[in-house]
């Protein structure tokens, strides 16, 4: 892979070329349908299948994860679950307080009372975080895009953790983090995400950090960073929406914001996870990986309603947020060393004008010809090495 680098914050603008050969593994997308075990045509959702005479639906979730709208829990299979193995690697961290409304949250379609995981918080939201590396080393925070999970950085984590203390978290509404029902204390607006990001970063690190963020959450991170430059060592943006044309969500994502249709499609784990991850680049999912991404949508309606709310917020606020991000990154008062890594097989965001923007802003640009929108999925090992070199070189220069 040919990688072109534009040196950031240098007295003069220079181009550097070097060869980079990825070792991408071949991935295959297997059957997406979850296994159903039943003894008659009648389908009854149970929390367990201890009684062999009972019908029950097997899904990959603990009993307490379900809610009234979706399922009441159970297991996807009797064997070890990939999502359970991933969950064991992390921990739940409390950050960002939102006082509850006192009302019981209900789903917007049938008016059914949602489960505990969907209720407005009367304490502090729980964020799922995975940490790897030596706590004495500089901290790097990995922030996934929309829609995705911290799991997308599973191959980046071990590479970066050799020299850094690395933390990846699930945004509120995604993965194992809390997913309050919109309208009952947290509405998933981009402004709320900026405030919540401030809370979680303060909770997981008291020192300066470097941030790596992917995709449509990049404007949120840049907005946060503009007021907290003293907190950041470096910023790495993976396929961020940098141009005016990038401010429009692709149809794959914007469909979740549609009236009624969005609520329905966001409850479909195949459309919400598999299609969203594989339609934007060359990424091909293994079944074990697919089950981790599908898990939130299989276990609770709250994940789908959060996705619906985020899509609507993105549709309204993404354009002004992208404009603000451009102004911030072009401003002479922006002092954070910034690198843009761009997967050129991105089917959602066009590469046109990206190079011009990086040249005019004097930010470093690294092109990844064989990667798509979710760069960390397409070449996670290689990306980890690139980020490590960028951060190391930045510490030497700055």
UniProtKB/TrEMBL annotation:
Name of a matching Pfam family: Abhydrolase_1
UniProt GO MF annotations: epoxide hydrolase activity
Coiled coil: none
InterPro entries: AB_hydrolase_1 (IPR000073), AB_hydrolase_fold (IPR029058), Haloalkane_dehalogenase (IPR051340)
Keywords: Hydrolase
Residue stretches making up the AB hydrolase-1 domain: 138-378
Protein name: Alpha/beta-Hydrolases superfamily protein isoform 1
Organism (species): Tripterygium wilfordii
